[in-house]
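ugh ok fine here u go
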Amino acid sequence: MSDPSKKDDELAGSEQPFVQHLIELRDRLVKATIAIVVVAVALALYPGPSALYDLLAAPLVSHLPAGSTLIATSVISPFMVPLKVLMMAALLIALPVVLYQIWAFVAPGLYSHEKKLVMPLVVSSTVLFFLGVAFCYFFVFGRVFAFIQSFAPKSITASPDIEAYLSFVLSMFLAFGLAFEVPVVVVVLARMGIFSIEKLKEFRGYFVVLAFIIAAIVTPPDVVSQLALAIPMVALYEIGIIAAQVFIKHTKAPDDEAKTSTSSS
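structure:
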């Protein structure tokens, strides 16, 4: 017969690490939340929610007819929309801290070669997402709004709604931010052995078509924004192939390196 006390000891031993992981996860989430709140409070004090929205709306306002402004069709929109912009900005600014907390939680369970794989991916994906958002704001918006306003009839006074504009901006930021993650996706697919470098090179022609299809779906129905999304995606795909070759070489597991050296000898 088995000893009941022994079973209790086994359960206690298996439960303790799980509880510790939950506690650590809670602590990491709390730290990430605190970082977002601190940034949100700082932004609320300066420059303030209204100024943040004005900054976000600047690319559109600069292309509106003289005297035109954005309008609010809801009673609470003048309060809620700038508050949403404030929280979005706080999340973006605090994103490195949030990702670091995620990394700190996961890293202890990884091997050294896996850490070499994950940390560069976390950093590069963050940088690429910010680059995508910046590219959209500083380059794409001005050209898209100028193109759209050039088609507006003279009998119409453009006065976009602030909520509709925020929704448009968020969808565009997300589209360009994710599109700029193409090199990371290519590297992961190659590193995990799902596709070889040769297969990725052969897929170039298909990816060009795929990039233009994605751009046509996620961007407004104008040529400018579609080209502005599709062309960088194609260029980033080529960068991803080059990065994958370098990445695979420097993130091999010790066993893989030993096998490679043995087979070569």
